[in-house]
# Entry
Amino acid sequence: MYFVDYQDNWQDAVIALWQECELTRPWNDPIADILRKQSDQLGKFVLLIDGANLVASMMIGYDGHRGSVNYLAVLPNYQNQGIGRKMMTYCETYLSQLGCPKINICVRDSNVKVLEFYQVLGYQQDPVVILGKRLIADD
# Structure
């Protein structure tokens, strides 16, 4: 298995992965999210490939102080094999090299399995509230 930076030829496979991992929502256009990520200068959009097959994806962001992880997805038949940990190690190494002191990750509170995954990796819930305001409707 090896990491590659996202290229457009992977778009359909990435969206299928996100759908299989239940990361897409009707109000978020995954194609628009991919296009917006491609214009991010400090971030990274990486894929993990096994042979010729997409196994995992992850978007990494950095605002100068905090790093972020979005769309971390691992194909279900590859889960529980250390791939999520491998993805997060890649992310932490990348952000550390940029001088990033902290990573914030948003997880839906109903996604207990993923919350437990991050807790095993040393992440903990911060005493903050995430506020959101939609600026662009993805419909």
